[in-house]
Amino acid sequence: MPTPITPSQLDADCLRIVEHVEAYAPSLGAAIRVLYTIGCREGEIMVRSRWSRVDPATYTLLPQKGNNLRVVPSADLPLSYQHWINSSTWPGSITSVNNLRRITRAFSALPPLFCGSKGISSHRFRHNRIKQLYLQGQSVDQIKDYMGLLSASIVQGYVDSVITASV
Fold this sequence. Notes:
8 helices, hpI Integrase, Chain A, about 15% strand
């Protein structure tokens, strides 16, 4: 029987993953921290060409799906991740989205998570970021703009989604 996960349980688990990965592999922890902080997609975190430095205080992220360009403050990106964007090598060993998903599942304290019938691993960070922004009082339109989404209905889908754990 699936058990619903509250937004606070999801946030606590996401933060647990970040802290454990940062301790286990600091360079990989930087990427996981970016997932947690800005809620980007797995494929966006690993493709340098999606990122551009606008000025010392700002980066942009070209979303994986056909959404609007995202503006990301440099303060939201660990220095090692900024270095990776601006250089030619990844500072650690992350080679694929599947590797990222395996690492996320390995450090989670929760059983496998689902949104509807679809299993989610590192995508939990995107769900979490949107839910946390909403719980902090951001409007659906504000979140849509922050996340670079084209439609408020996409944000509403994340806000209304029920994350469950299989037991």
